[in-house]
Amino acid sequence: MTRIGILTSGGDCPGLNAVIRGAVLKGSAVYGQDFVGFLGGWRGLVNGDIIPLDRSRVRGLSNQGGTILGTSRVGPYQEPDGGAKNIQKTLDALGVDGVIAIGGEGTASASKRLFEDGIKIAGVPKTIDNDLDATDYTFGFDTAVEIATEAIDRLRTTGNSHDRCMVLEVMGRHAGWIALHSGIAGGAHAILIPEQPESIDQICAWAVSVRDRGRSPMVVVAEGFTLPDMSEAHSTKGLDGFDRPRLGGIGERLAPMIESRTGIETRSTVLGHIQRGGVPTAFDRVLATRLGMAVVDLVADGGWGKMVALHGTDIARVGFDEALANHKTVPKERYQEMRVIFG
Amino acid sequence: MTRIGILTSGGDCPGLNAVIRGAVLKGSAVYGQDFVGFLGGWRGLVNGDIIPLDRSRVRGLSNQGGTILGTSRVGPYQEPDGGAKNIQKTLDALGVDGVIAIGGEGTASASKRLFEDGIKIAGVPKTIDNDLDATDYTFGFDTAVEIATEAIDRLRTTGNSHDRCMVLEVMGRHAGWIALHSGIAGGAHAILIPEQPESIDQICAWAVSVRDRGRSPMVVVAEGFTLPDMSEAHSTKGLDGFDRPRLGGIGERLAPMIESRTGIETRSTVLGHIQRGGVPTAFDRVLATRLGMAVVDLVADGGWGKMVALHGTDIARVGFDEALANHKTVPKERYQEMRVIFG
Amino acid sequence: MTRIGILTSGGDCPGLNAVIRGAVLKGSAVYGQDFVGFLGGWRGLVNGDIIPLDRSRVRGLSNQGGTILGTSRVGPYQEPDGGAKNIQKTLDALGVDGVIAIGGEGTASASKRLFEDGIKIAGVPKTIDNDLDATDYTFGFDTAVEIATEAIDRLRTTGNSHDRCMVLEVMGRHAGWIALHSGIAGGAHAILIPEQPESIDQICAWAVSVRDRGRSPMVVVAEGFTLPDMSEAHSTKGLDGFDRPRLGGIGERLAPMIESRTGIETRSTVLGHIQRGGVPTAFDRVLATRLGMAVVDLVADGGWGKMVALHGTDIARVGFDEALANHKTVPKERYQEMRVIFG
Amino acid sequence: MTRIGILTSGGDCPGLNAVIRGAVLKGSAVYGQDFVGFLGGWRGLVNGDIIPLDRSRVRGLSNQGGTILGTSRVGPYQEPDGGAKNIQKTLDALGVDGVIAIGGEGTASASKRLFEDGIKIAGVPKTIDNDLDATDYTFGFDTAVEIATEAIDRLRTTGNSHDRCMVLEVMGRHAGWIALHSGIAGGAHAILIPEQPESIDQICAWAVSVRDRGRSPMVVVAEGFTLPDMSEAHSTKGLDGFDRPRLGGIGERLAPMIESRTGIETRSTVLGHIQRGGVPTAFDRVLATRLGMAVVDLVADGGWGKMVALHGTDIARVGFDEALANHKTVPKERYQEMRVIFG
Lengths: 343, 343, 343, 343
Description:
Chains A, B, C, D: It is found in: Cytoplasm. Four copies of one chain form a homotetramer. Chain A has helices at 16-30, 42-47, 84-94, 105-116, 141-162, 177-186, 200-212, 231-234, 250-262, 282-300, 320-325, 332-339, and strands at residues 3-8, 34-38, 50-53, 98-103, 121-125, 165-170, 190-192, 218-222, 235-237, 243-245, 266-270, 306-311, 314-319. Chain A is of the alpha/beta class. The mean pLDDT of chain A is 94.
């Protein structure tokens, strides 16, 4: 019997538990695989800190946010006593034949190195930001977009009641997918993403155009968006005459800039961690379950060194190399097609 | 200036309004197109019953269920005074250059015939059942799956509290996509779809296996599922000794069969029209908006006789012929991969 | 140390777990009480079938639907080996000093008899129908109303798209509270409840009046509503000339009657068990938690023979007698104030 | 025929539109009253800026957040050309007999003064914070609590996955009702409200106790909570040695204090404006509709100078004086009963 260890790594993401459940249910039923879970991400793998994972342990997990295995942001080579040699020893001691690592770009990168160093490891891609090129969508993204969209729906009624401009800051440090999709879904009048520069003049022009049509501007901004000249946004002179860094994110910086330039009362909201937790959408549960089931097929086929991915409606297999080759950012044309209707 | 008429046809579907909004916003901003809406599906086209559609009319529609244009199930050749000739006269009288028809298989089929009869017409695919082969997903489907999944989440707690088997009947006359996806998302113990026969003995075996593990069976059944021998389900003898047809859908018929054969108390629920209405999910709003924007691109390119579709993450164009060539049912392998973990 | 046994009885209801959690957390922290749970309602009490309930066991229960103790509809005198004598023996053998019974009218009635027969028992009222006179609201009711209201919101968009009359049947066998509140919240054009007769002519008049204003009628009907002359609704002649009972609930019977009399296409939906399960609303979680905490205060004060209840914003104590004195139905004036704006 | 003007004043609040709808539907159907709406709060009243309000105008408003009349925070005596004399002239010119003002404490206070100055005015209480003593609950509060509770549910899964302490800041400048109720509903381990001091040592002790039981601390803090010694929270020394004010709310200040004292990684989230907008809960829709209907009864009875309120399950009438006599804060005993189970 093959014994497989599963770990979850990186930031929390709705659907992690559904992946674990899908893998354990199919692996045990179809391939007779046996499963353990490493606790706390790579730390559990390095230290051999495990729990058994059988059918009863993954019961009811498809709609549970978070991960029953815990997670952390430290990599397998950064952990004390980390590295491939030690990990192989741990695996041998535990009788674990191979590892399934569920995580984002950092996890894929570490998995690639471990695989090259001889560890049998396979991957499931996970990023709430949807910025992995190897897969059409990552689980967790749809939930984050849904939560952000519901927030926009709520903020718009308040914007309209008060004739205010509302600014919502959503996740997306390097890729603006959450902002783009929630902004489209919520009918935002401006969407600002890290990939595409917009000047404060343009943003204000959109807001004014909306106000002039008798409506209340709704601006969605990804946390990684920067203004071309951010000196205004980044710093401010204190009463003592010293420049000091403005605290807070881009949303909190944009709001007073829009207000002072347009005269439209403006309020900002930062969604933050709410986007990462809780019950996954049905879309994410299905995707996560399918990926979990597919990765045990991969492992049963001896496909170590690869990860599973969504291509169209099919689950595909891609090498860690390929998965890491490109960062999936919002293409200019996807942004431009929305941009023409802003304002 | 090009003047385009939009109509929505067939059953209600979350996202119809978002398509209309996307088309009008982009068409007017980018191509200077002018829009009218035909009321009540094909009837409005045949009778020239229109409302103007400008930017202010589609304001705030992205999150509104239903269709502001109304819909019906009668085709353009079935309507009194229907047919291509009369329709062309109506279009001429209204100064409408071409038609965008948003609808399902029947609508695509009628559009194809109208196009062959000389009407400039383009299409946007719509089916809550997701059974159109030309597109990876249709808008409305994700919302239906989300609603069905939330119902499963609720029913499971009651099943567990009462040690009952719960049966949920969802939409899907010819294709089991809603049952499959909601069943996966909700962690059902049996999913029954029109495409794949299962015997009542097998269904009961799954239920007993769940009960024997101390859990409460959750069965999701598409309305179009039939038992190989449905005589038991379809009819029953009355007190007068005459056979009479059992009323109600498959869910209501299955529940007493499971209960009497397994001894597990069983209750059924029929979701019905709730799956078709109300606020669309963010996924459906994005897809619908993109399709609406893409169909005005198509029309601006003179691409009459085609419809827009989702391929992977891209919007593609397909001929009506191609769109109608195949009915997209659940492939056997998609069903089998879940079936092995039922029970 | 006092040892207390908790049981949940009757139909499932969102908030049962929150009551259990509130009782255990406060009872153990403040009074040093020790808790066990009887499994499967009264059956567990009669048979001494228990699980320990400590702080770790009730962890995370506030938002969990259903009851971890299970429930059933059989009373303590109906169970084999039931009755006060046997129950007292069981309690003595388990070292349990007294019982907290969470349930509805039947449970309160049985608790009263057990208390008169010498059992130390206290109660927490539970009915999804909100028909207990002793308390302003029962937990579970708010969740049921919320679910029914969301269904109305969804059905209305479909009614409007198709110019249809939509009929929604909600719970309420003897009291129309769920229909009344969800109907108000959803803006229904007719609300039909068991307490107040309305003729089919009146119902159709409302539907026609709505249609004549260009809208689509929304009818909410409690399952216990009956037409003054139900012969039309209750039976139908078969092809063989014999009268036979119409299957299905009042919603399914009303729809064709409205359709045939008004010519308005009419569809019905039965919400069913979905109203009873799943995540409770915040209101119900707060109410349930407060009741759970209050009942251990009651027990610590030796207040056996009583139950806790909500009066305004305060938790009060009432005798089982008082709790059972009146069935809380919708008062005529509450119904009339809505009735004047129907149609 | 009596002509009544309605205005909404102060911060946005889910249910405002349902009050307007309830008043217009009942007032026109039962009393033959005629309605207009003043736009932008008191400003519309001062300037005579009105829209007609008839049945068709309030159609479908029960589930719409915000207010179709707009709102502002400026009072009738602060507006240019404000004051009772001018307002009476405006009312006379418009043929408006009396005013219904929907608003919070400031609105009630201004209404009282206007009434004493001769204006026929009646009120409907509105505060999302639920801090009006005259009524058991205000509409909007339940929606805010529901939204905050859903946020807690989401944050808890992430807290558990990362072994983090999560801090959620909710609304409540002077009263901690939203924090108390959402904290109870979400199972928070510490709830911090303006009315009750807690030291940072106590807060950290609770967090450590939770961590030591293997769980992740969840802290809910009302925006108006202050630490007894807030110097640490309020200021910080910059790199230049100067003390400078810490920006951000109490949640953002508490998180690093908890983290540095306990060693538990801590993250904060500020819910902000999301609590004020969007679709109201069914509870709020029912309450708002009932208040709207009751205030036209009040007006029909000539009960100017009063407002309507919820007492238990009944709608009552209270004078503006009485309504303003006390600020409803969380009573010590309500807080203490939860406090004993914190940690």
